[in-house]
Amino acid sequence: MRMLSLAIAVTIALAIVSLFIGVSNISLLGLLSASPEERPMQVLLISRIPRTLAIILSGSAMAVAGLVMQMIVRNRFVEPSTAGTTESASLGFLVATLVVPGWPLMGKMLIAAGFALAGTALFLRILRAVPLRDVMLVPLVGIMLGGIVGAVASFIAYRFELLPSLLAWNMGDFSGILRGRYELLWIGFGCAVLAYIAADRFTVAGMGRDFTTNLGLNYQRVMVLGLVIVSLVSATVLVTAGSIPFLGLIIPNLVSLMVGDNMRRTVPWVVVMGAGFVLACDVLGRIIRFPYEIPISVVVGVIGSAVFLYLLLRTRRHA
């Protein structure tokens, strides 16, 4: 409990730092002496606070989605970006943009979530059909499926001159977050809360269909609930900030090394560390080339790739 409190304190400190980094120079003294109509307070209310909240909500929700994905697939190397879920959500958002351009963002997000749900269900169907003798074949199947879905999305975007939009969705970036453009992420956070409520069921489901059924739980319902949570979280983050790769892989694995695999215990850690990790990466991306920014997907992708390789090598050594 003491370590979790320390992690929460570090995350809060990173959130405070995030509020005061940017091209527009604002300070605590300036905010205390400024009226609500003056520029420092407007920058804080319209840009900095929404951006920080978006980072916290995205980081925590995507990390929990990765944890749920690993529990229902029973593989530590699976997360939305290695299972075709993110690419399917991107394809759905592209289709919604072409077919119903006048719909509100909520409607387009639901279409993206529907595509993400279908893509993830297809991934699970392929896993059941293919004999998997190596744990690493599971994410490889997901990456190949994501590549196919991504290629279809790229072809459609090319034909309708939407490649810049598709690139923006695939490149996670919080620099465009303003008040009124991040609130959908609360849906993702609600899904993370739902995952915590159903944590015991996911833990049991992670032990297999027969074990779950013997305990009297409906295995199929638990799987559907997990797929809905993963799909909604992936879609809300994608349409708001873009794709953030490897986040759902890094954080659950690090937390598992620290506190074990009981999801009831790991979800609070995953929420806090997911938010803290994305905050740290965002701050890093904003100060390396200040006043320019490095997109969050680049920073997380570089660090995530290194951690992914470490986990791979660690698994091989312990095999």
Automatic annotation (TrEMBL):
- This chain's protein is named ABC transporter permease
Keyword terms: Cell membrane, Membrane, Transmembrane, Transmembrane helix, Transport
Q: Could you tell me which Pfam families the record lists for this protein?
A: FecCD (PF01032)
Q: Which protein family is it in?
A: Belongs to the binding-protein-dependent transport system permease family. FecCD subfamily.
- What subcellular locations does the record give? Cell membrane
Task: Tell me how this protein sits in the membrane.
Answer: Multi-pass membrane protein
Carries keyword Transcription regulation? no
Q: Which InterPro entries match?
A: ABC_BtuC-like, ABC_transptr_permease_BtuC
Q: Transmembrane segments in this chain: where?
A: 6-32, 53-73, 93-124, 136-160, 180-199, 219-238, 244-260, 267-288, 294-313
Q: Which PANTHER family match?
A: FERRIC ENTEROBACTIN TRANSPORT SYSTEM PERMEASE PROTEIN, PETROBACTIN IMPORT SYSTEM PERMEASE PROTEIN YCLN
- Taxonomic lineage of the native organism: Bacteria, Pseudomonadati, Pseudomonadota, Alphaproteobacteria, Hyphomicrobiales
